[in-house]
Amino acid sequence: MEYILHILITISFYTLLAQSLNLAAGYTGLISLAHAGFYGIGAYTTAILSTQFGLSFWINLPLAMLICGVIGYTISLIALRTVDDYFIICTLGIQVVLFSVMNNWMDLTGGPLGIPNIPSIHFFGLNLDRKVSFLIMSLIFVGAVWFCLKNISKSGFGNTLKAINEDEIFTQSIGKNVYKAKIISFTLSAIFAAIPGALYAHYISYIDPSIFTISESIFILSIVILGGLGNLKGSFYASIFLILLPELLRYSGMPDNVAANLRQIIYGLLLVAIMMSGKKGVIALLSKKSIKKV
Amino acid sequence: MMQVLFNIIYTTAIYMLVSVSFSLIYYPVKFFHIAHAAIITLSAYLVYLFLNKFSFSLYLSIAFAILITIFIGIITEVLVYRQLRKKNVTSLSYFITAIGIYVVIQNCIILCFGNNTKIINTSKVSVGNQFFEAYITNIQIITILVSVVLFIFVNLFLSTTKTGKSIRAVASNSNLCNLYGISSNKVILLSFGLGSMLAAIAGILSAMNTNVTPNFGFNLFMYGIVAMIISGVGSTRSLIVGSLIVASAQHLSAFFLDTKWMEAATYMILILFLIWKPLGFSGKALKKLEV
Cβ contact (<8 Å) for A82 and B93? Predict the structure, then answer.
């Protein structure tokens, strides 16, 4: 039972991560490989605040979102000077710098040893250290973020983002501020990534930099692409699929490390298959709906 | 200080080789073939496999490894990228496909060889030759020589021979080339073959100097890319400058700060460059579209 709850909680984290990245990558077309970095910033902010200053989760979360937002905003100012492939390379560089800071700034982050003993979340005197209550809370967060993103994508601003993805120059020519819209979308995506980060830190109660690597970024991006760019429900299904996959492989009698590698091989192949078929995500791949470009 | 200078020269040579190998592929196809990183790693592991498991001689294993990596490079082009080109997809799709291929090859390597460090033991450990209070090993001298020779060779090849010129022609306009009877598919195949060969050489040489881990190709490749972006995409000769900047940034930061900041320094250089000169040194435009 504990095991199933743990998997469900992990799924909710990755849903949050994938949906927040989907705002930048799916709607606006800003494929970012720095998402694990923002996830890490969220986790480290809450970890440092709660272990060193003894602040509660409900103060840490807004602060983590604020810090992620500020850093995301600064990064977007730099990264958005470039376009397309160069943008991805730039975010990749930023991811490595963020990881390097987490891994090497011993005084602040504890370096490779990480930060232990992060307290669990208290909610009006109720201790949320049991898995069931934690799951309910993270599901509420998933719902809230999903609702926000859904509304953003349906708003006028969301339409601007979709227009930028379709044709940037045309969008600019009808008087939209493309640069500003891109910055806002990237920053929002970073802010939302702080939520799973903060939740993760309090849930596991111990964080170290090995979780927030470049391969984690690639994994989150894969969830978004497998689920379909610009498809929030797809991100949810894809994170269920990719989290359950290694567990299923393990049940079929495979050793742990083989299952982990095999999962990566499978999603690598799926990425290639999706791109070669020109469909938006696995769900679209199965239902014969074809689209013109990704 | 002399040692730092030698290290800079050696690292410049390696990065130059990697960035040349990558730019040979990048110029005609215009997308980031990330799987190149896995190909660098693969070449080193293949040498390890042939040398230690099949106990072939060193030169034979190197030759086999290079042949196999060329083959894999060509296969990715024929089976995947060529099909994508027929569909005329955006550059982001190429990038994501390349990430997919990278993940697949990388994990196949880990599955076959495991996650731990491998050592390609070529000969007995030598102390190294001493020049002006600095130590430099034989393999480092060989690396510098090979990379300089190959760099000159590639430059001559691109500027004088007919095939080399056709690569540059496809790089500047592939549709026009097809009209003039140069098959862009053939040229791209050739550039994938050549690029993978150079990548394999760089990977093997670098692996002989240090050890092989599943991630070493990715780091090497990223430094090569950073060098390429800094030097401004479009000119092969300016890759020297880019590699020199990256190598100096790393070794100077290691010398003055700490070795743990080497990696971050590289990317900080890239980020600073993108702020200061978004178009790189040679100033070729990377804008999305000129209306």
Answer: no
Asked if B107 has any chain A CB less than 8 Å from its own CB, the reply is yes
Place of tokens 């819209």: A181
Specify the DSSP class assigned to residue B150: H
Looking up tokens 């034989």 gives B138
State whether residue B148 sits within 8 Å of chain A by CB: no
Domain chopping of chain A, boundaries: 2-212
Q: Are B272 and B279 in contact (CB under 8 A)?
A: no
Domain formed by B2-118+133-276, architecture: Orthogonal Bundle (1.10)
Q: pLDDT tens digits, residue range B86-127?
A: 887 777 788 888 889 999 998 898 888 877 777 776 665 555
d(CA B11, CA B40) in angstroms, rounded, equals 16
Q: Kindly identify which residue of chain A lies nearest to residue B218, measuring between CA atoms.
A: A214
From the list B92, B104, B226, which residue is nearest A268 (CB)? B104
Q: Are B235 and B20 in contact (CB under 8 A)?
A: no
Helix axes B138-160, B184-209, angle to 10 degrees: 170
Of A90, A225, A265, Cβ closest to residue B96: A225
Task: Find out whether A94 and B268 touch, Cβ atoms under 8 Å.
Answer: no
Which residues, in sequence order, are bridge partners of residue A122? A127
Q: Which residue has the tokens 């120059």?
A: A169
Q: Where are the beta strands (DSSP E) in chain B?
A: 129-131, 134-136
Closest residue by Cα to residue B40 from B102, B119, B114, B85 = B102
Q: Tell me how far apart the alpha carbons of residues B25 and B27 are, in angstroms, rounded to a whole number.
A: 6
Residue B13 phi, psi dihedral angles, 5° rounding: -60, -45
The residues pairing with B129 across neighbouring beta strands, listed in sequence order, are B136
Tokens found for residue A287: 């239902």
- Report d(CA A263, CA A266) in Å as an integer: 5
Q: Is the pLDDT of residue B217 over 50?
A: yes
> In the block, which residue shows the tokens 């008087």?
A175
Residue whose structure tokens are 């393999």: B139
SS3 state of residue B131? strand
Contact with chain A for residue B278, Cβ under 8 A: yes
| CB of B154 closer than 8 Å to CB of B20 | yes
Q: Does B287 touch chain A (CB under 8 A)?
A: yes
Q: How far is CA A279 from CA A28, A85, A162, A239, B93, in A?
A: 18, 20, 17, 18, 11
Token pair 């799973």 is at which residue? A196
Q: Which residues of A touch B260 (CB under 8 A)?
A: 100, 103-104
Helices (H) and strands (E) in chain A, counts: 13, 2
Write out residues in chain A with pLDDT < 50, as ranges.
288-294
pTM, to two decimals: 0.86
Q: What does A149-199 look like in DSSP terms, one character per residue?
A: HHHHHHSHHHHHHHHHHH-HHHHHHTT--HHHHHHHHHHHHHHHHHHHHHH
CA pair distance B21, B18, nearest whole angstrom: 5
Residues A99-109: pLDDT tens digits? 888 888 877 88
Q: Return residues 154-213 of B near A (CB < 8 Å).
A: none
Inter-chain residue contact B271 with A90, CB threshold 8 Å: yes
Portion of chain A with pLDDT greater than 70, in percent: 92
B151 three-class SS: helix
Nearest to B208 by CA among B5, B51, B4, B22: B51
